[in-house]
Design goal:
341 residues, alpha+beta, T-fold, eight-stranded antiparallel sheet, three-stranded antiparallel sheet, 24% strand, globular
Length: 341
């Protein structure tokens, strides 16, 4: 009888605890905060009971993003990245911060795993194409060849013991576009969760880091844009939690010349912006990983992209293209499981 009574008490306590937890979750409201970061809207969504505490946490996360941008940006002359770039070809290792060393480790891993389809050393070529888009003309062949001669991820040397970096080639210029936003989004989410806001999402211009599911739901509902459309999204929505998702495409940054569109995403082997109109969506553990995978799969063939995704447990890939006026989809085998039923 005592054992039976104990079980009743345990079950009762479990039901009461579950009820209290459920009530606490449902008493939370969604608060959304937005400001420009890294050239894109940077949006933080938090479920919380107290709007002032949510705002305080969002302010800390924005400060985190600002701090990382001051390190990673190649647009800021005084950034740590540009200070490192200025040492290229000086035959010496340069000590760097934890954050810069960490993201460069990810960058070299991405380059090796993607067979150079993502290459952090493409800065000289990226700079050339920025100028080309501004002037609305293709880079000339000599300038492009000269820029390509200054690239190559194999000429970046990391010293883990002394946390330092040596850029071997003179004129090398690192560019963290293609994984920087994903890294910052994940860092901001980690900051929010460390402060106790587990139900949160950070969207850094389409590179999204996602925490626990909102109250009463199985995940956050995420839309995927249709290729060449800024506002239109696909009918099926993603339902995600504790994961990240990134979409890459050319709708916002491209160069149109003689009826051909050149994306801002550059093929490191040719130095030319990719010309197929393709949206690439990748779901993966960690914002930096989904970001660089989306970039690499924008360059690789569809077959090689599907092969690359298989190297990451739980990762999924969706490639959408407009062909002859019709939407054509190619998905990894597991992508469908991430759609909302």
């Amino acid at each position: 009888m005592a054992q039976f009574s104990l079980r009743i008490k345990f079950v009762s306590l479990f039901i009461i605890s579950t009820f209290i937890l459920t009530q606490a979750l449902y008493s939370q409201q969604k608060f959304v905060f937005e400001k420009p970061e890294m050239g894109s809207p940077f949006t933080i969504s938090i479920f919380a009971k107290d709007s002032s505490k949510a705002a305080e946490a969002a302010a800390v996360a924005f400060h985190c993003a600002d701090s990382l941008n001051a390190i990673f940006s190649d647009y800021i002359d005084s950034s740590e990245l540009n200070i490192l770039n200025a040492t290229a070809g000086q035959n010496r290792h340069v000590p760097v911060s934890d954050a810069l060393f960490d993201i460069l480790k990810y960058s070299l891993q991405a380059a090796k795993l993607s067979d150079g389809s993502y290459d952090v050393s493409m800065g000289p070529v990226v700079k050339l194409w920025r100028k080309a888009r501004k002037e609305n003309q293709l880079p000339d062949e000599d300038s492009l060849k000269d820029a390509l001669d200054k690239t190559g991820y194999k000429y970046i040397h990391l010293d883990s013991v002394h946390q330092s970096v040596w850029l071997e080639k003179k004129g090398m210029r690192l560019d963290l576009g293609g994984l920087g936003k994903g890294y910052v989004a994940q860092a901001a989410l980690n900051m929010l969760q460390a402060k106790g806001f587990m139900v949160a999402m950070v969207n850094a211009g389409g590179k999204i880091a996602i925490g626990e599911a909102p109250p009463g739901r199985n995940g956050w509902r995420i839309g995927i844009t249709v290729p060449e459309q800024k506002q239109q999204i696909m009918q099926q929505l993603l339902l995600l939690k504790n994961i990240s998702v990134a979409t890459s495409g050319d709708i916002y940054q491209h160069l149109d010349i003689n009826g051909k569109r050149y994306s801002h995403i550059i093929n490191p082997k040719t130095g030319i912006g990719v010309t197929w109109q393709r949206n690439v969506t990748v779901i993966a553990k960690g914002g930096v990983i989904s970001d660089w995978l989306a970039t690499a799969c924008s360059v690789l063939s569809i077959k090689k992209s599907l092969s690359l995704i298989k190297q990451f447990r739980g990762a999924a890939l969706l490639i959408t293209e407009i062909k002859n006026g019709k939407l054509v989809e190619t998905k990894s085998a597991n992508f469908q499981s991430y759609f909302e039923n």
